[in-house]
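=== RUN LOG ===
request id: a7f3
mode: sequence -> structure
chains: 1
length: 289
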Amino acid sequence: MHIIENDILKIQVKSKGAELDSIWHKRNQLEYLWSGDPGFWAKKSPVLFPIVGTLKNDEYYFGGKAYKLSRHGFGREKEFAALQESPTRIRMSLHSSEETLELYPFSFCFDIVYELIENMLRVSYEIGNKGDDDMYLSVGGHPAFKLPLTDDTTYEDYFLRFDKVVNAGRWPISKEGLIEATPNPLLTNTDRLALSKQLFQQDALVFKHLNADSVKLESGKTTHGLEFNFEGFPYLGIWAAKNSDFVCIEPWCGIADPVNSNQQLEDKEGINKLKKGESFAKSWSAKFY
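=== RESULT ===
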C-alpha cells in the first residue's frame, strides 16, 4: 500500500490496478471512499484501460485479427510500479508486456499520477504510444464514494448538483452491457439529480457530451460533501451496485460498444488514436469538505 498525505487529506493507493483504497479527511475525520464490501462490489476505484465498458461479445477486431477483452479492460488487474514518490504525489506506472500484447496489440506506457493540493485530489492518466504504428485506446475512472457520508444522514438525503443547467438523456444499457440506440429523457432544464437506490436498478446512468464540467455531491442535512471536476471527459457514468451504500462518479474517455457495433477498434465510438511517439493525458479532480 502506498500513502500520500498533507495537512488535510490522507490517500492510500494499491499497487494492483493503481487503485485508490482510501480518501481520509483528517480535519473532518471522515472517510470518503467506499469500503469495498464484496457483498455488493469489491472494487473501490478501478481504472478502466484500454477500453471503457463492454465490447460486443467481449471481442474486437484489429488488423484483421480478433481479440478478447473483458469489461473495462485489464488495467485494473495489473500490478503498477510506484515511481517518483513524494509526501503529496505519487506516479504509478504500467508497461505493455507479452501478456498484454496477446489481448491488446500495442506497446504502451500507462502512468497514473495521484497528487494532493490542499483539500483536492487530482488524478491524471498519461498514456504513451511506444510502438511503431498507430495506437487506439480508451481510459476512464470509476471512483466509488461512500453514502451516506455521515451517520446522521441517509442515502436519499444526497443529490448531485451540476455546475450548469443541463438537458440530457440517459443512454440505456442492454442486458449484454451495450449502449442502446436512443437515450431516455432524464435531466430537463435542471442542475440537480436526486439520488436514490432505486435510480440504479437498471444499471448505470450514462451521459454523452454533457454540458457541464463538474458536479457536487451534497445534502441539505450536512455541510460535508465533495466537488468532482470532469472537464475534458466526453462521457460520464453515474452508478451504484443494487442497494449499496455508495455512488460512483465515472469520467470516461471512451464508452461501451453500441448494440449495432461492427467491432472494429478503429471505428469504436469514443476511441482515441495516438500516432507513433505521441502521448495522451487527461485529469479529473475532487475536492472534499
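=== NOTES ===
The two ends are 25 Å apart (CA to CA).
The first strand starts at residue 2 and ends at 5.
=== END ===
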